[in-house]
Specification:
Elements lengths: L1 H15 L14 E2 L3 H4 L5 H4 L35 E6 L16 H6 L11 E6 L18 E6 L3 E6 L4 H9 L22 E4 L4 E6 L6 H20 L3 E2 L9 E6 L11 E5 L4 E5 L7 H11 L5 H4 E6 L4 E2 L2
Parallel strand pairs: 1-13, 2-3, 7-9, 8-9
Antiparallel strand pairs: 2-4, 4-5, 5-6, 7-10, 10-11, 11-12, 12-13
């Protein structure tokens, strides 16, 4: 009886679930990877040992008993194409339901219809818990103080940005940046400006966790647990980097605002700088974190990609999921 109900639920939800995004016009040299295994290779027990497919044995964390997610929809290929991903530092882990409603903020300014968007394609905009830079608060309203921006996949940090700088940021920093469908090549020179300072991020890897509790409680519950477990495994490999750690290489972990698909929590995005990749995972549990670090972060491989991979891109091989 339960099996029959589940099958009925699966068929019904498939009819109601979002369809794949319309195919994007891809530049020469890029194509859509039809299957998860075509985009990112699966971890191979023959090469990596049978343990690569097993849950972490040392993990003691778990989600609350009432933590329920959608575990029956197909995930792969249902994320909207994006060209650049812009993280705005807020020093917070939760935000207004719509980050564009953070009044007077750079997030609002970048979301306003009056501004012309970037010329290099679709921009994904996220609030992040990246700490705010030190500022003289006597000269700025709290929501209008200068902040920092991280532009991906360029791994470009732009500092001292105020809401009034939004058009300048879009024109001189975001639009010229390489995108998810730019061929992988040496990074272009860092743009110079008398108004804004910019530099390349030192990090080799970046893990983004949706923590947007005001959109869905599951994101607020899962993100701190995953950060603890991911940090534990990265620390053991001497790869964990926090905001004050300027050592080159390593991996930073940041909370970000809603990326879509909170019913598939937890959503985890892994950016790999030198490989020119981003791996978008979902349904990630604390016991998956060791595999995420050892295989996805370090190797660009995916464990259980058929049930956990939502999409991503590989600039080196000219592949995207859309």
């Amino acid at each position: 009886m339960a099996s029959a109900f589940r099958n009925l639920l699966t068929k019904t939800s498939a009819l109601l679930s979002p369809t794949s995004p319309s195919p994007a016009a891809l530049p020469p040299g890029f194509r859509t990877a039809a299957l998860p295994s075509a985009l990112f290779p699966p971890a191979d027990p023959a090469a990596d040992g049978a343990s690569c497919l097993e849950d972490c044995a040392s993990c003691t964390l778990s989600y609350p008993a009432r933590f329920r997610i959608n575990d029956y929809h197909d995930l792969y290929g249902h994320v909207r194409p994006w060209a650049t991903h812009v993280l705005v530092a807020t020093g917070k882990a939760d935000w207004a339901r719509e980050v564009s409603n953070e009044r007077g903020s750079l997030l609002e300014a970048l979301s306003e219809n009056g501004h012309v968007g970037p010329t290099n394609g679709e921009m994904m905009l996220s609030a992040s818990d990246i700490p705010l830079p030190a500022a003289d608060d006597k000269h700025h309203l709290p929501e209008q103080r200068p902040t920092s921006v991280l532009i991906l996949p360029a791994f470009l940090v732009v500092e001292n940005v105020t809401p009034s700088d939004a058009p300048f940021l879009l024109t001189h920093f975001i639009s010229p940046s390489p995108t998810t469908t730019s061929p992988l090549s040496p990074s272009p020179p860092v743009p110079t400006s008398l108004r804004l300072r910019a530099h390349r991020s030192n990090h080799a890897y970046l893990i983004l966790l949706c923590s947007h509790r005001s959109r869905d409680a599951r994101c607020g519950q899962s993100a701190p647990l995953l950060k603890r477990e991911l940090s534990r495994h990265l620390r053991a490999l001497q790869l964990l980097r926090d905001a004050d750690d300027a050592r080159p290489g390593g991996c930073a972990i940041h909370f970000v605002s809603h990326v879509g698909g909170h019913k598939y929590a937890a959503n985890v995005l892994v950016y790999r700088r030198d490989a020119g990749q981003a791996v978008w995972l979902a349904r990630v549990r604390p016991q998956d974190c060791e595999a995420v670090v050892r295989y996805t972060v370090l190797r660009g491989e995916v464990v259980r990609g058929e049930s956990m991979l939502r999409g991503g891109f590989d600039r080196g091989r000219g592949l995207v999921s859309w």
